[in-house]
Fold each of these.
Amino acid sequence: HSTVNELQALNQTGYMLHHLFKHYKGDDFEKGINVYDVYTVLYLLHPEKFEVEEADVQVETNGTLTKGATVTDFKSAFPNCSVVMSIEPKVFKEIFIDALKYCK
């Protein structure tokens, strides 16, 4: 019984995500689907569950081959954001499913 299949029966949002994950990633949610936008939302809801590091993050705007690339300096004396480094997969699944229960 995979998390992807668990989503299908949750609600309309879960049903939609089930089909997205099945189409793009197959049935491997437990093996490491990285849903970065979800990390952001869940971090805002539960910052204590995530390992973060302060860093200076800049976006390259002039490079011909690197335009739009993100450059992250974890040793900067002037960090401008918190970067999510990791979360325990079981905890991620738990708070992800819990947050989806509030959706339509």
Amino acid sequence: MSIKTNHKHVAALAFPFASHPKTLMDLLLKISNSAPHILFSFFNTKNSNDSLLSDLHLPSNINIYNVEDGVPMGYRFTGAPHEQVNLFLNAAPEILTSRIETVVAETGMKISCIISDAFLTFSGEIADKFDASWIALWVAFPTSLSAHFYTEIIRKKCATEKIGKDEELDFVPGLSLLRVKDLPPDVFAVGERESVFSKELSQIGERFPKATAVVINCFEELVPEVTNNDLKSKFKNYLNLCFISMTLPPPPQLPESDSDTTGCLSWLDKQPCKSVAYIAFGTKATLPEKELKALAEALEFSKIPFLWSLKENLKEKLANGFVERTSKQGKIVAWTQQTLVLAHDSVAVFISHAGYNSVCESIVYGVPMICRAVFGDQMMMARMVEVGWEIGVTFKDGVITKNGLLNILEMFFHDDDGKVKKMIENLHELKKIVLMAALPSGSAARDFTKLMELISIG
């Protein structure tokens, strides 16, 4: 689809942390391909841009601009939670407004639309200053959007009725599968515990209904119907686009193993079908040292072949001699191309932090999960994996122990009661749903057409 435009100018505002900038850029690439006459200006911090754009080929209608990260000169980090995020968010409204004004003056083109990461909830006010429409991109699963939309109700209910952490959230539309303890800590951050970040998120219920559209990094068919219906009723336009950063359908064949410089594919080629445990906790999540050791001990004791994506500096936290003793049993690398690993026939299970992108990839490649959530919305995603979709399991009390993991691995690799077989069947059904929704005639294409109309009109 290609839509003619009247030389519109769209500003894209990134939240420069984790995978957020990549998802926004992938959306921008998709939009720019359909609207080559629109000018796109992408605003992000220099460090994030340097990482994001290192091997990315951009079309001529996307311009990249660096913005300050909000860290004062000579500032010494204290190690407080979300410290760098809070510094950026505190300074971002002024920094972004000033930078956009400069770009408008340089290009001679006023901003017609602002597409922002949804964590920048102040973007609606920036859009008002430039008389532009505002489109917010929610990169996580929609249940986390519901949690932040209903923050005030959740806070009041839990405070006045003293609801326990194991209580289900049946008083919030679409969250009845979840428990209080599954919610991100920022939902409960009040008083001295309220950071700039948690305050931004608490503004979602007030600010998002003013947006021209709220765009979701998901397929509506994967979301509970009550969640979809409720969020659709709250926003002017509620658009589920797809898994924005994934290619669907996935490539039918893996590349030649020799082309994988990490050596993972070549190693996996030597393992029996459905014999390998793949372990990866993303780029930001880090397990406590005690749990890292428990994970390593369980892997070694189980004798199960494993592929572990582990940062180099964390190897020293494992038991002495673990790497050497398990050199024939497993392979440890600093980074993997995860989709290629999950697509390989030898991978049987994915031990993960339940990050949203990882869960999406698990669904597309049909690999059941063992989840140990670490922060943010990961507890909610782990709950969806275990209870909502029944495509994986979590650890008792949310903590990895040697015996706990050994028991789970025993279930996955022997499956005496057929639980894993059922998980794989559920994964196959979810994959079918995703691939149908991703067709040119599917729901994602319909919502993308609506998005392009809004951008072209804005």
Amino acid sequence: TKTLNVDIWNIWHAAFVASLVYAVTNDFAMGMLATVIYTMMILLFGDILGPIINKFYGFPNITFPHGTAAPGFVFALPLNWLFDRIPGLKDWHADPETIQKRFGIFGDSTVMGFLIGLVMGILAGYDVAGIGQLAVKTGAVMVLMPKMVALLMEGLTPISESANSFVQKRFPGRELYIGMDAALSVGHPAVLSSSLILVPITILLAVILPGNTTLPFGDLATIPFLVCLMAAVFGGNIIRTILGGTIYMVTILYITSWVAPFLTKAAQAANFDLQGHSSVTAMAEGGLWTTLLYVGGAKLFGYFALVGIGLIITGLLFYVNRVLPKRAAKQTEA
């Protein structure tokens, strides 16, 4: 792997999946195996994402081996292929820069945030003062978040450079990405705008989808993390990010509904206070296709599923970090 993951806090993603595997199998060793294989998968995502994050977000030698954000990247790839083949949609350029050029001041990210907050306040039934406050706060977020991320990146640059120097001394010529929290990406105007619009869409989906038993509440704040790498796949196209994010939320709501009994069991085993609720679930991590892969696989096929996933990931790590670089070197020589 090329990814040096210093985002220690987000190791909870692997532990979370392991707890669900344990909840469905009552096999602690299988839960630990799921942790190892899941961590390998996250490092694989980090290796693949490094160049894309550098190109779209402008973060050199930074990647996001982040359990909530990385699955959205994979989910967006076939959707982007599909959108490229839909007449009309394929020609819509809706990145923040194009929108601002086309609509002038109304395309400015701050004004867009203000208008989105205005509409959300009206739909929520706020009074005039509440609508105005929400609109101003939403506009302020669109201004402040990119500036805060820029400050964070200034502080992280020396860490990235030092880590690269450390590795180069011991492993000359080895390329390295520093694994960081995907929070660094949520300040992008395309991510913020799409996420704000997806909040009411997600609530509406929760109400109208047949068979869904999830009512998102606190997890609505994780929507920017769910779609931040989808926006990178879509080149910052806000329309594609909203469409792709809507489809993604449908799958997430159904998976969170399916995983709720297992998550509730794990929470009860940890003596978590459910505050009178009979069942709890989580969109972040609990509703992702990766969770379905590990928990569903372990439930149906046990060790065979996890070992199979591990072998596939090992093969992909070898392909990404050994085969592809050799091919690129041969093409350069030719």
Amino acid sequence: MAASIFAAVPLSPPVAVFKLTADFREDGDSRKVNLGVGAYRTDEGQPWVLPVVKKVKQLIVNDNSLNHEYLPILGLPEFRANASRIALGDDSPAIKENRIGSVQSLGGTGALRIGAEFLRRWYNGNNNTATPVYVSSPTWENHNSVFMDAGFKDIRTYHYWDAAKRGLDIQGLLNDMENAPESSIFVLHACAHNPTGTDPSPEQWKQIAAVMKRRSLFPFFDSAYQGFASGSLDKDAWAVRFFVSEGFELFCAQSFSKNFGLYNERVGNLTVVGKDADNVKRVLSQMEKIVRTTWSNPPSQGARIVATTLASPQLFDEWKGNVKTMADRVLLMRSELRSRLEALGTPGTWNHITEQIGMFSFTGLNPKQVEYLIKEKHIYLLASGRINMCGLTTKNLDYVAKSIHEAVTKIQ
């Protein structure tokens, strides 16, 4: 029999976080804890369907005017408008001056990909694959792949995490921006930096914006956790809104997976802020061509849930309450884990756990300590030491804290 035409295809290694989840599921130990996957869990360790989402889904079911016709290529208009509105704010000068546009996408990843595809084709000259794209060190691993697969040839990193002080390396970051070629693209985490949970302060964001403006650098924000990080939509959107107020043209990729709990609905939005309405119109016309050959038309269910919620003052307030419930639980788990580690006298400092924000904490655990926790304690986390705070519950906190104490004490 002739060899398969696919015989030379190499087996790709599994995506680390999903492999970790698969290993967790196969583990039969009753003590097992999953601190890997980036999804919210209740104190019972279960996924949570937001009450407001349940309510809106019922409203959609009972709406006899709805059908299953194709949405426009760029997506549901009321979703796009409201998604951009919560990113930029009701009083945004860009909205008032009609110089924004948006594209409904398949999650935040889809928004990043459409933006990356457009920039590779049209940014700073036609089909400029040589433009440097900078991502933070470390960053969400998909950032590198999205821009590489979109055709960019020069993916670089900028300083972000200072391992020694377990915080932001602001000077290294600013130096890298100063030394970057003009017109370079910088991928910025709008809030709740993944994986470190460490964000610049407003004053530091002002420093970053000043350098980026002087060096003509392009900001591409990834906003995956608005509201979920601090419990405040406005606080979590501060950086994006400040850049807009400073006159930047920018992209902002939004995800509604975390703050609406719509993980498998893949609801995302790419907000485009331009100099004027004509520029935005031309940009969207090219993005429409990209979408047409990528997924052609987006799905409606998740977008309708978000649009209905954001358009109704009552539902909007209820949603903000749901989001705060999630954010508050994460903040509580941070406080409880830190206090337990400090009470145990665990070597090192642990204040960074409460100083960080959002779903993830960069613990500072090294790969050998992580391996010990997985193999000996059945606590699953990424080799980088990143943990999902939502995997902690009032029932497993003591076990996790004692296990971390043991790992740090035994293994240097």
